[in-house]
Amino acid sequence: MKPAGTRICLVGATGLVGGALIAEAVGREDLRLVGVARREARLPAGARMEMLVGEPIDWPQLIAASRAKVMVCALGTTIAAAGSQAAFRAIDHDLVRFCAEAARAAGIEHMIVVSSIGADRGSRNFYLSVKGEMEEALGKLGFWRLDILRPGLLRGRRRPRRPIEAMAQALAPAVDVLFLHGKYRCYRSIRARRVARAILSLACEKARGRFVHDHDAMRRAARRAGTSAGD
Q1: CATH code for the domain of 194
Q2: Number of folded domains that form the chain
Q3: Is 34 among the domain residues?
Q4: 93-141 tens-digit pLDDT
Q5: 0.70 exceeded by the pTM?
Q6: 111, 114, 115: which is closest to 145 by C-alpha?
Q7: 1: in domain
C-alpha cells in the first residue's frame, strides 16, 4: 500500500495562489490537499482533493478535520477590493491569524503563509504594515517551522479580473529586466505557479525555524519541486 503522503490544509483555495497550488498538485502522489473555504473551488482536470466548505467561524473545526501536517495560508486581498482599510485588515491580519491559531490548536506545527515584499510592522504604508503585523503575530504562535513567502507583484489570471493589476502584470516582465537588479531583485514580479511550486517544495522541509523567502529564494525552492515551467 502506498503511503498517504503529506496532508496540506489550504486556506485561500479560491484565490490566485491557491488555484495555482491546486493545479501544481495534480498528479502528485506524495501529498494530499484539503481546502478550507467559504465556497467550492474550481478544480482542474485530474485534481484529487477534498474541499471543506463553511463560514470562517466554522473554519477551526474544518482545519482540525483536515488532519493536516502543514497549513498553507494564501488568503489576501487589496484595500480597494476590500472596500476599506478596516476590511482589508480583517482579512489579511485577523483572518490569517485566526486560521493560524486554529492550526496550532489542531496540532499543526508547520505553516506556510503568503505575505508581501516590503512587509514591515513599522512601515508608513498601511498595506505593508498590516502584512508585517501578521508575520509578527504568526511568529509568536509556536510553530515548529514557519515559512513566510514575500513575493512582489503576482502574475496570473485572477477571477474576478482586476484591470489595473492586469496592466501592471503586462508591464512587469519589462520592468523586471530593465530596472530591478541587485538589491532591487526582490521586488521583481513572479508567476503564481512558481510561488505554488515553492510552497509544495517547502511543505516537505523538516528543519525547524522561521524562514523568510524573497523572489530568488522562492525561485530556488520552486526548482527543488522538480518542475520546469518558466517564469
Answers
A1: 3.40.50.720
A2: 1
A3: yes
A4: 999 999 999 999 999 999 999 999 999 999 999 999 999 999 999 999 9
A5: yes
A6: 111
A7: no
Phi-psi sector, 83: left (phi>0), alpha (psi -120 to 50), beta: left
SS3 per-residue string spanning the chain: CCCCCEEEEEECCCCHHHHHHHHHCCCCCCEEEEEEECCCCCCCCCCCEEEEECCHHHHHHHHHHCCCCEEEECCCCCHHHHCCHHHHHHHHHHHHHHHHHHHHHCCCCEEEEECCCCCCCCCCCHHHHHHHHHHHHHHCCCCCEEEEECCCCEECCCCCCCHHHHHHHHHHHHHHHHHCCHHHHHHCCEEHHHHHHHHHHHCCCCCCEEEEECHHHHHHHHHHCCCCCCC
Specify if 229 maps to a domain: no
Answer yes or no: is 162 within a domain: yes
CB-based burial of residue 160 (10 Å sphere; 0-12 exposed, 13-18 middle, 19+ buried)?
Answer: exposed
Query: Which domain, by its residues, includes 115?
Result: 6-224
Model confidence over 20-64: pLDDT tens digits? 999 999 988 889 999 999 998 888 888 889 999 999 999 999 999
Question: Residue 72: enclosing H or E segment and its boundaries?
Answer: strand 70-73
Residue 66 has which C-alpha cell? 483536515
